[in-house]
Amino acid sequence: MSTTRAGRLTWTRNDALVAVGAAAVDLTGFAFDTQFEGATLGVTAGALVVAAGLVLVARRRYPVVTLAVVLLLGLVVNLITSVSPHFGLGPSVALYTVAVARGPAVVAVAALLTAPLNSFGQGGLPFKLGFGLLANAAATLLVVATGFLVRRWQRETEANRILLADRAVAEERRRIARELHDIVAHHITTMQLMAGGARANLAHDPEAAREALVTLEGSGRMALGEMRQLLDVLRAGEEPETAPPAPQPGAGDLDRIVAESRLAGMETEFTVRGAVRPLPPTVGLTVFRVVQEALTNARKHAGDARARVRLTYRPDEVTVEVSDDGPGSGSGTAPVRPPGRGGYGLIGMRERVALQGGTLEAAPLDAGGFRVEARLPVAPGAGATEGEEAPR
User: Fold this and answer.
1) Which residues contact 204 (CB under 8 A, 6 or more apart)?
2) CB neighbour list of residue 174: distance below 8 Å, 6 or more residues apart
3) Is 131 helix (H, G, I), strand (E, B) or coil?
C-alpha cells in the first residue's frame, strides 16, 4: 500500500469513538427490539449491525460511500430479522456527515433515498407505506436540517476567525508602521540637523562640530537598535533568540529626547509636575513617542523656535504637553507648518493614545506656534514592570 493511499485511509481517534459508540447503541437497540418482537437477534444480523457502525470511521473522507454502505447493511438486517420501524444511530451519523460535507443536490438525493431504504423490510415484508415510513422521513429531515445548521455555523465561525486574524494582522502592521515612522522621523531628522551643524562649525568651532558628530553617531546607533528590535518582532519564531530584547523607552527617557532637541538647535524646556511615579510600560512608551514625534514636528516646521515639554502626574492620569512658539520666533527662519489635520505623525499619535484609552489634542496656538497634549488614564497603584523608570 502506497503512502498516499495509506494517508487517505487514516482516521482520528474521535472517528473511531463515534463508530464504536454507534455500533454499540444500534446493537443494543436491535437486541431489545427483536426481543419485543418475540424473536432473537442472530449472529449474522448482529455482525452486520456492528459492521454498519464501524464503517463510520471513513465517514469524513468518504461520506457518500459510507452512507451507501450503512444503508445497504441496514437493509440486509431488516430483511433477515423481524424488527419494528426504527431509524438507527448509524444512518443518522452517516446522513449528518453527508449534509455537512456535500452540496445541496447530493444531500437532497441522499435524503430521498435514505428514508425508503432504511424503512424497507421494517415491520415485515413486503414494503408498505405507513407510520414507519413517515417516522423515518421525519427523522431524515431532522438530521438533514441539523447538518445544514451546523454547516452554516461552521462557515460563520470560520469567517469570523479569518476576520479576526485579518484585523490582528492589520493592527500589527499599523503598530509597526507607527514605530517605523517614529524612528525614522525622529532619528533621521536629528541626524540631518547634527550633520548640518557639524558642517557649519567644522571650520571655526571644531569642538562644537565634534559634539555634533558624537550626537549624530549616537542617534544612528539608537535608530539601528530600534530598527533591529522591530525586525526581530517580524522574524519571531523563525530563529531562536540569543539575547533578551532591550527594554522599550518610557517616561524616564524624556531627558534624552529633550537633550537631543537642544543639541539639534531648538531651545527646549522640560518640566515635571505632580508626584513622580512609575508608569505601566505601554503608557510610558506612549508618552515617550508623543514627545518624540511632537519635538520632531517642531524642529521640522518651527525651525529654531523655543519648545516646551511638560509632564504632569495626577492621581488617575498622566498628561504630557509639547508646544512651540512657531517659525520665526528665533533668530532664523523655518518653513511654515502646513495647514490641515496633520500627516502620519499626528495620526500615529492619535492611534497610540486611543489604544491606551486616552485623548489627544493637536492644534495651532492663537499667538503662534503649535500645541500637542495627550491625556492618558493610569489606574491608581498601577506601576511599571522591568524596564520602566520614573523621569528624572
Assistant:
1) none
2) 351
3) helix
Cβ contacts of residue 353 below 8 Å, gap of 6+? Answer: 286, 290, 359, 360, 374, 375, 376
8 A C-beta contact, residue 360 and residue 350 = yes
**Eight-state DSSP code of residue 186:** I
Cα-Cα end-to-end distance for the chain = 74
CA nearest neighbour of 46 among 12, 95, 72, 80: 80
Distances (CA, A) of 68 to 63, 64, 73, 78: 9, 6, 9, 15
Instruction: Mark out the alpha helices in the chain (DSSP H runs).
Output: 3-8, 13-36, 43-54, 63-80, 89-101, 104-119, 131-183, 189-201, 206-234, 254-263, 281-302, 344-355
Q: Residue 75: pLDDT above 90?
A: no
Query: What phi and psi, each to the nearest 5 degrees, are found at residue 281?
Result: -55, -40
- The whole-number pLDDT of residue 322 equals 93
Strand bridging mode 307-313 / 317-324:
antiparallel
Residue 74 has pLDDT above 70, yes or no: yes
Q: What is the largest CA-CA distance in the chain?
A: 118
